[in-house]
Amino acid sequence: MGCFHSKPRRQYPGYEDPISLASQTTFSVSEVEALFELFKSISGSVIDDGLINKEEFQLALFKSKKDNLFANRIFDLFDVKKRGVIDFADFVRALNVFHPSIPMEEKIDFSFKLYDMDNTGFIERNEVKQMLVALLSESEMRLSDETIETILDKTFSDADVNQDGKIDRAEWENFVSRNPSLLKIMTLPYLKDITTTFPSFVFHSEVDDIVT
Amino acid sequence: KPESMNAFALISRSQGFNLGNLFEK
């Protein structure tokens, strides 16, 4: 299958062969190529440099460039090389965690990191408060500081089993096993239909025999 | 509702955590 009317893949820094990425993830080669179609559209939306920067990520999430604490947090975890940009291999490996067939253990790990904003190995009360305040500012929910403190008291009395004021990895695993809906954000059913959502990958494929 | 007293259940409602939006054309 030839490649035509598209920017050469060598112009995408961090581009990795779909066969190699498929072997490291739960995605098939075709699915990796379909993800490349999505990656191309996001990475070329503001600066056509073959990488996704924070602004492009926010634009893809919200259709606007508004800054958002939660989107920033996801972006930082996708940006594993800490360069302020996401390359194609980062993108595929990070989305892999969100695949419906990935073991819960990996999803629990990722979600723990999501909430452990300062990377101390603990989810601390001040981090959770900061996120609650950010949530209120993006929604129409209005809660008094007293109510926020009550919610934090209740949450930490449930989750922080040893009552040391912070949630460690084992406490988090225990807490989400009792509250499985908290992991809903960690699974994207879209990833099962990615080749249907981006069928144009077939025209841009660089792999001779597409394995589905 | 018990969920309204769970800070993480509230936080996970943020649109910033909804990566499904990346797939909406």
Kindly describe this structure:
The complex is a heterodimer of chains A (212) and B (25). Chain A has 212 residues and is mainly alpha-helical. Chain A has 2 domains: 103 residues, Recoverin, domain 1; 85 residues, EF-hand (Recoverin, domain 1, Orthogonal Bundle). Chain A has 11 helices and 4 strands, in the order ααβααβααβααβααα. In chain A, helix 1 crosses helix 2, helix 6 packs across helix 9 and helix 7 packs across helix 8. Chain B has 25 residues and is mainly alpha-helical. The longest helix of chain B is centred in the middle third of the chain and has 5 residues. The relative contact order of chain B is 0.16. The chains are: A mainly alpha (212), B mainly alpha (25). At the A-B interface, helix 3, helix 4, helix 7 and helix 8 of A face helix 1 of B.
Q: Could you write a compact summary of the structure shown?
A:
The complex is a heterodimer of chains A (212) and B (25). By secondary structure, chain A is mainly α.
Draw up the topology in text.
The complex is a heterodimer of chains A (212) and B (25).
Chain A: H1 18-24, H2 29-43, E1 52-53, H3 54-62, H4 69-78, E2 85-86, H5 88-97, H6 104-115, E3 123-124, H7 125-138, H8 145-159, E4 166-167, H9 169-178, H10 194-197, H11 201-204
Chain B: H1 7-11
